[in-house]
Amino acid sequence: MGGGTEAVPDLGKHCQHPECNQLDFLPFKCDSCQKVFCLDHRSYKSHDCPKSDHNSRKVVVCDICSTAIETTGHDGDDEKAILKWHEKSGECDPKKKKKPTCPVRRCREVLTFSNTSTCKTCHIKVCLKHRFPADHACRKIPAAGAPAIVGREINNKFLVALSLRNSKAKDCAKEEVGRTSSPSNTPPVKAY
Prior knowledge:
By secondary structure, the protein is an alpha+beta fold.
């Protein structure tokens, strides 16, 4: 079918959905069945594409070990056959079913992709609540030839720096109080 208008016959295409046939000036070509569709019928589901699985990937989850098995849809593999192959391959281990949890005492948080943090000091995977070294009793793994810095030493350095900062802020505040009582030599700023 051609598209366009009488004045410009090559402009646009008609939707090839049997119930639509709408003239669309920005048509979509299905990458599976190679037909042209309008915006409403461009998805595989909306035009019931017979070849919709040729590029798709499916993931089958094993009930025994919770392993995700990726497969392509164009092979015609049945999910049951894939799971049987997985069980017989020796990769299926029921011990893998247990989800990893945070190693901190009394924390039962299940570690997932989105709530797992790896400590840069001790390289242990913990939940986000315990991501800081002080929260999970972090012990640094000493590198060869490098002195080990204990977490408490870092904490002490921080406290010293904080107290120095606070004392300087108090001194600045005292100087500011002294300045506000005497008139300043700088001219006032005018706003327009």
